Amino acid sequence: MRKIHHYLIRLALFLGILVLPCLSLADTIGSLSTTPEHILMGAQYDGLSLKVNGTVPAGSDVIVLFTGAGSELHLREKGKVFGLLWMNVGKVTLKNVPKVCLVDSSRSFEELGKVADPYRLNGLRDAIEVEKGSGSGNIDIARELLLLKKDERLYSETAKGVILGADEGASRTFAANMPIPSAIAPGEYQVEAVAIKDGAVVGRYVTAVKAELTGFPLWLSKLAYEKSMLYGVLATVIALVSGLAIGLVFQSKGAH
Amino acid sequence: MSLTMNLYLPIAGNSVNCVAIFGLGGAVGLLSGIFGVGGGFLMTPLLMMMGIPPTVAASSDSNQIVGASTSGTLAHFRHGNVDFKMGFLLLLGGIAGGSIGVQIIKILRQLGNADFLISITYVLMLGFVGGYMFLESLQAMRKAKAPDKAQAAPPRRESIYAKMIRSMPFQMDFQRSGIRLSLLMPLALGVLVGILAAIMGVGGGFIMVPVMVYLLRMPMHVVVGTSLFQILFTCINVTIMQATQNHTVDFVLALLLLIGSSLGAQVGVKVGKKLGGEQLKILLASLVLIVMFKMLYDLLVRPDILLAYMGGH
Description:
By secondary structure, chain A is α+β, with helices and mostly antiparallel strands. Chain A has 7 helices and 13 strands. The longest helix of chain A is centred in the last third of the chain and has 28 residues. Chain A is flat. Chain B has one domain. Chain B starts with 5 loop residues before the first strand and ends with a strand.
């Protein structure tokens, strides 16, 4: 009985080894890369156009997402006081809010159908947790958050920006330019390409992109966070000296 | 070769156009030089419109005011328009008032609806100060146009307020301002302005200037120089506190603003010299009233987005 048990386990393992490559076949027909691989934020950084390239199974449409890790956000909620004045009425805590979320697709989302819905900005509504504080009103917080982030250009949803190549055997190429805003924070970001065919997801490809400070911004940031007293005093002294210098320049001009 | 005018600011976490920031600093510095106000109530919202987070905008603005007010104070000092004795007394009162104001805000926040009180205080203060200055200056300018009538008018009786000032203890001369009053007056008014400034979250220049003109009865040109001198110390304190506790001072942003604002302040002082005291008052009153109407509009009209970040003025 014990021997039969062992044989069965070995058979299962053997079959598993045989079947595994077949299961991962869909994922191997596909690739994803970005140019540049890392976002370097130097003194001249003003956002950039991130080139996203890859391959997906032939006949697929593609949705490309650039997202940041979810974080907690504390915001003020505006509402009407005494039915007349619009002002801050309460605080709202939102959890699992991506710092940035840029979405683009090869075809309009309506044409892609319901399968594309979780990858749209509205799909974030399910992931974001809302904690309303005292005095909070009855507004659609998630909707207002999307409006706020869109206003900052940290969230965007566009369609038809992903260019598809012709089918070449079992795959096709795609390319997209993601406009990375200048207001992104240093940290890890994720680029994801979702292949959709016949109303179903047939492949998902993910790569990480790191945004990091470099050069003068890195030095200044370290000084501000690690030696904050020195930074504060230096900022004050430089402001004082600059003000005095400009004042003296004007004085000497006036003397002539 | 393309020359970009954009600069990435690591503390603000955004890139800005240097020319736009320089221009903004110059415009606000000009107003600062003319009227002796820090300009925080204008600069912070404008920086926020350029994509700077509210807390960084307010703190960096304080840092640039250090430079602009140094330049402005120096210019006014050369013209003999800084009353250091009065400035120190107001500053002492202001520091004490600021501390009291911070505690009041804490209590109000615990009680709830603090924001309502702040907004209403802001609009009422701006409306009252701006309206009073505007009407008073208008009357004075009309009188100046009709000198004969003014000369013919009987001498005015001493007001109750003037009698009260004269009867207070610890009288001293403020030679630069050409007045004599109790040292308790600038101390007490400094405390009052400090409390209001802390509640409203501003430097308080636009409240301090009318207080000096109408309650301390200082000449307008000395008021401007003395106000800038006092603002300098307030902003040094805010810059160091914000840099160490909240890391919200963007020194590069402040430097760009202050180069613009220091130059603007110098031009402002020269413009101010060419304007009469009453003209200065009526222009400042107009500025204060414009800000008040903008705030009132924001309170009455539904905002496009019903969520906002913490901080800012």
